[in-house]
Write a structure and sequence with these properties.
This protein is α/β, with parallel strands linked by helices. It folds into two domains: 143 residues, 2-Layer Sandwich (Beta Polymerase, domain 2); 116 residues, no CATH class. It is built from eleven helices and seven strands. Strands 1-2-5-4-3 form a five-stranded mixed sheet. α7 crosses α8 and α8 packs parallel to α10. The longest helix is centred in the first third of the chain and has 31 residues. It is elongated, with a radius of gyration of 29 Å. The termini are far apart.
């Protein structure tokens, strides 16, 4: 692309400053955003992109282009957007928000064009005396959901950077956006939709896992339990199906093991204690049940109080030294 020397010079004069701003923003936001399990993407405009933006006629000062540097925070769902917005304001002063009102939109109900959240910010006043020449630089932060970001990446060349205009390609791109917006709504409102009449159902497996979670939460306090209770309960459920024990029966077995042990051990995970309880319960007869499922294995370690047969049984997988 042929670029006028005046525009080229304006870019060359500004780029080093915005590169420093890029490094400063990256150092302030990237690690903090990723610690929240968000994605953080950033860039300084290329010369060609800069020139084309200037040629729109909407830029009053090419040296202070509001998106010369821009970054994007990608969050899981639309429910996380407000949280990410406050995160930005913790670090930078808000100048402009587009759209201005989160409850208003310029789009018609039949339209699905770009309308993602864009914040125009600058460094907080008095935050740092270092690199004071960066303090007045305005830059753009977009906040998108994973689906919004995926759509923008997948369709960017179809809509924006293309050498041929195609109504059909753009139509396809925006049809996909409409479907993704519907998916966003379903994901964010899943708790409400799950109670909708005609949709609120459960199968036997779900009921069993739910009952098992209740049993586990009765025995252990929250600090001793993982955040992923579903995974723990599924692991335990796999064992219970092998030994033919229901969640209600497990509740009784666990209380008996606490009495036998004299205490609920604080150094054993719920999984380890449940395996220990099943192995020590004669009614369960774990060693006989394992014979019916030759490919099934149990994880064990020396911190567990187990019957002697567990140390030599081929289906008992030991981590560290075997118990006596």
């Amino acid at each position: 692309m042929k670029i006028n020397n005046v525009i080229r010079l304006a870019y060359i004069n500004s780029e080093p400053l915005y590169k420093r701003l890029e490094n400063d923003v990256r150092d302030r936001l990237k690690a903090a955003a990723e610690a929240r399990r968000w994605f953080f993407i950033y860039r300084v405009k290329t010369l060609e992109s800069f020139a084309m933006k200037i040629e729109t006629g909407r830029v009053t000062n090419p040296s202070l282009l509001e998106d010369f540097f821009a970054c994007t925070i990608v969050v899981p769902t639309i429910n996380d957007i407000a949280v990410a917005e406050e995160f930005v304001y913790d670090h930078y002063d808000k100048l402009v928000r587009r759209p201005t009102d989160p409850l208003q939109t310029h789009k018609k109900s039949s339209s699905f064009e770009f309308d993602d959240l864009r914040l125009y910010v600058k460094r907080k006043t008095g935050l740092s005396s270092a690199s004071e020449d960066l303090n007045d630089l305005v830059f753009e932060i977009q906040i998108k959901t994973v689906l919004q970001y995926a759509w923008s990446v997948a369709t960017h060349d179809l809509i924006y950077k293309t050498d041929a205009v195609s109504w059909t390609k753009e139509r396809i791109a925006f049809q996909v956006k409409a479907m993704l917006e519907h998916a966003e709504l379903a994901i964010s409102e899943a708790p409400s939709l799950a109670t909708a009449k005609g949709f609120d159902k459960k199968d036997t497996y779900t009921s069993e896992i739910t009952e098992l979670i209740v049993v586990i939460q009765k025995i252990w306090e929250e600090d001793f339990l993982p955040s992923d209770m579903k995974r723990l309960s599924e692991n335990i459920s796999n064992i219970l199906r092998v030994v033919g024990v229901t969640p209600t029966k497990l509740d009784d077995i666990l209380h008996k093991e606490i009495v036998r042990n004299g205490i609920l051990p604080s150094d054993l995970s719920p999984y380890a204690f449940i395996v220990q309880a099943l192995a020590n319960n004669r009614e369960v007869d774990l060693i006989s049940k394992l014979k019916t499922r030759r490919k099934f294995c149990l994880l064990m370690h020396s911190g567990m109080d187990l019957p002697k047969w567990c140390s030599t049984h081929p289906q008992c997988i030991w981590i560290g030294p075997k118990g006596e």
